[in-house]
Amino acid sequence: MSRLIVVSNRVSVPKAMGAAGAQGGLAVALSAALREHRGIWFGWSGKETETFTGHLDMQRNCDVTTATIDLEPQDIDEYYNGYANRTLWPLFHYRIDLTEYDRSFDEGYERVNARFADSVAPLIEPEDLVWVHDYHLLPLGSMLREKGVTNRIGMFLHIPWPPTRLFVSLPNHEQLVASMLHYDLIGFQTEEWLDSFTHYVKKEMGLPVADDGTIEYQGRQILARAFPIGIDYEEFTEGARSAEAREAHDRLKSSVRGRKMLIGVDRLDYSKGLGERFDSFGRFLTDNPDMAKDVVLLQIAPPSRENVASYQQIRHDLERKAGHINGAHADVAWVPIRYVNRGYRRTELAGFYRAADIALVTPLRDGMNLVAKEYVAAQDPEDPGVLILSQFAGAALQLTDAVLVNPHSTEEVSDAIERSLRMPLEERRRRHQALLNSIREEDVVDWREAFVATLQGKRTTEPSHAEP
Ligand code: ADQ
Q: What family does the Swiss-Prot or TrEMBL record give for this protein (predicted)?
C-alpha cells in the first residue's frame, strides 16, 4: 500500500467519536483514511507567527503523523480570510453578491500555496501518493510540479464548482484552472459540479474532454471524476448506540415534554440557508396554529470564520430573526426556536438526531452535506424521523427518498414540515430504509478507497453513483 501524503488547509488531529468539540466535515472524513495508510497529514497549524520560518512541527497522534507550519498574520488575512473565504467560498456557493475581489488576496493565496509547496515537498518520497484537499489549495499541484515532484497528485474539492457564467467573474480564472491541470486526478462531490468544471474546460479553454472525464492538456492527461463523500457509517452508528448518546437523547426528549422536535445542525454559514429556514419555520407556525404549540425547532449552529464580515452579519441576522419569531409566537411554557451556538461531542449529536422527528437540512448550496447522512444513520429504524433536504445540497442526488425541497420557498418548506409531521409510520420506514441503504453502501471508506485506487491508476471503480 502506498504511503499517503494528505495536504489540507488545517490539520485537525482525528478525535474519537466521544471527544469534545465540533469537527468539520473534512476532519471527520479524513480521519479514517489517515488511520489506514501510513503517511503524513500536512497543513497549517492554525497558529500565527510574526515571521514565517517554515519550521515543521511533526507529531504523532491517534496513529496519524501530522506536520504543521505556522503562518504570518498577513498570510492569514489574505489567503485564509481573504481569497479562500471572501472570494472562492462565496463564488463557489453561487453568492456573487458576497464575493470580494482584491489583488492582495490573490498574492497572499499564491504566497501561502508556495509556502505549502516548499514545506511539504521535502516530506514526499518517490512512491508516495499525494492527496490535496479543497479550495484553499487549488494551485498547489502546479507548485509541487515546479519543485520537481513527479508523484501522482490528486485533489478533491469538497465544495461545489460554480457554473461557467459565474466562474468567469473571477479575475485570472483561466490561470487558476490551468494550475489545477497539473494534478493527475481532480475529484468532485457530484456529477453536477464535475459537469460545471468540464464545461468550463471545454468552452473557455477549448480542451478536449473524453467521456470518461480525461482532459488532455499540454501533452498530459488529467482525470476529472465525481466521488461522493459519505460518513463513517460503522463508527457513527456505534457511537449512536453508546450510553452518552442515549443520555443526550433522553435529556433532550424530556425537555420537549412530548412535543415534536425538528433539528438543524450546521456551521454558522450563509450557504446553509439558516435565515430562510427560520422564516419557513415561522411561516409553518403562522399557517398551522393547531399544530404550532406542539412543535419545537432546535437549531445548533457553532460560529465559524468569525473574522470575515459576512459571517458576523449572518450571526447578527439570525439572532434577530430567532428573537423575532420567538417573540411573536412563544408563551410562558413554550419557546418555538431553541438556538444554540456551540459544538457538541459527536455521540451527543447522534443522540440529539435520534430524538428529533424531523431534520431540516436546507442549504442554499452545499458540496455534499454530511449532517443529512448522519441524521439518517442515527435514527431508530422501527420509528425513524423524516429528512427534509434541500434540492441544492450535493447529497440530494443520492438521497432521493428524503423529502426534497427548494429552500428559497418558505411555503414549500412549511408544507414539507406539515407533511412530514403527519407522515404515516409505514412511509417513514420505507423512506428511511432506502436512505440508510444508500448511506451504508457509499460510506467514507468507499469514498477514500475509490479516490486512492483511481489516483494509483487502478481505476477499479465504476463511475460515480451520483448521476443527476
Ligand atoms: P461543512 O460545510 O462543514 O463541510 P457538513 O458536510 O455538513 O458541512 O459537515 C459538518 C460536520 O460538522 C458534520 O460532521 C457535523 O456533525 C459536524 N458539526 C456541525 N455542527 C456541529 C456541532 N455543533 N457540534 C459538533 N459537530 C458539528 C464541507 C462542505 C460539505 C461537505 C463536507 C465534506 O461544505 O458540503 O459535505 O465538507 O466533504
A: Belongs to the glycosyltransferase 20 family.
Q: How confident is the model at residue 14 (pLDDT cuts 50, 70, 90)?
A: low
ipTM: 0.99
Q: Is the whole-model pTM more than 0.90?
A: yes
Q: Which residues does 103 contact at the CB level (< 8 Å), separation at least 6?
A: none
**Residue 35: what pLDDT?**
75
Determine contact, residues 144/117, Cβ cutoff 8 Å.
Answer: yes
Site to probe by mutation for ligand 1, drawn from 26, 136, 236, 370 as the one with most ligand atoms within 8 Å of Cβ, is 370
Centre of ligand 1 from the C-alpha of residue 210, in Å: 33
Give the pLDDT score at 75: 97
Grid cell 429556514 is found at 277
Are residues 30 and 5 in contact, defined by beta-carbon separation less than 8 angstroms? Answer: no
Please report the DSSP string for 170-218 in residue order: STTHHHHHHHHTTSSEEEESSHHHHHHHHHHHHHTT---B-TTSEEEET
Residue of 268, 368, 448 to test ligand 1 pocket, by largest number of atoms within 8 Å of CB: 368
Residues lining ligand 1, Cβ inside 6 A: 22-26, 28-29, 158-159, 229, 265, 267, 300, 302, 343-344, 349, 366-371, 374
β-bridge pairing 260-265 and 214-217? unpaired
Convert the pLDDT of each residue in 108-152 to its tens digit: 999 999 999 999 999 999 999 999 999 999 999 999 999 999 999
Q: With 60 as the cut, is the pLDDT of residue 429 above it?
A: yes
Question: Do the Cβ atoms of 296 and 311 come closer than 8 Å?
Answer: no
Catalytic status, residue 366: yes
**How many angstroms separate the alpha carbon of residue 289 from the centre of ligand 1?**
33
- State in Å: Cα 266 to ligand 1 middle: 7
pLDDT at 23 over 80: no
Q: How far is ligand 1, taken at its centre, from the CA of residue 374, in Å?
A: 10
DSSP 334: B
Active site residue 182: no
DSSP class of 40: E
Q: Which of 75, 106, 269, 366 is catalytic?
A: 366
* Residues 141, 146, 147, 152, CA torsion sign: positive
Q: What is the DSSP string of 138-166?
A: TTHHHHHHHTT--S-EEEE--S----HHH
